[in-house]
Amino acid sequence: MVQSRQSADAEHGVPETLLDVKGLSCPLPVLRANRLLRSMQPGERLRVLATDRASVQDFHAYCRETGHRLVACGEEQGTFSFVLRRRAETPAT
């Protein structure tokens, strides 16, 4: 099931969008996150929940290549959680 919703990070009070891509396999979790990040404002946070073990390596590589920041990642009972911060826009040349 894929769903997204706005929530607040209880620990920091920072608003974030939640994207639930549990059950989807590579490369769909990263592709869905990319689509959502494109619609977000610079600095906004996206929390992704995934069950595909390959998503760990995929999200690290994705952030390294795109400039989005991987703020946190972890795993609990087979569900991986990634918190990404949308990068600042590149100035037009």
Describe the structure.
- The protein has about 90 residues and is of the alpha+beta class.
- The chain has a single domain (about 5-85), classed as TusA-like domain (Translation Initiation Factor IF3).
- Helix content is about 25%, strand content about 35%.
- The protein has a 5-stranded mixed beta sheet, with helices on one face.
- Helix 1 links the parallel strand 2 (about 15-20) and strand 3 (about 45-50).
- It is globular and about 35 Å long.
- The chain starts with a strand and ends in an 8-residue tail after the last strand.
Primary descriptors:
93 residues; Translation Initiation Factor IF3; 25% helix; 35% strand; 2 helices; single chain; 5-stranded mixed beta sheet; alpha+beta
Please give a quick description of this structure:
The protein is an alpha+beta fold and 93 residues long.
Q: Fraction of residues in helices?
A: 10-25%
What is the overall shape?
globular
User: What structural category characterises the helix and strand content?
Assistant: alpha+beta
| Contiguous helical run count | 2
Gyration radius over CA:
13 Å
Q: What percentage of amino acids are in beta strands?
A: 35-45%
Order of helices and strands: EEHEHEE
Work out the count of structural domains.
Answer: 1
CATH topology heading: Translation Initiation Factor IF3
Class in CATH? Answer: Alpha Beta
By DSSP, the count of extended strands is 5
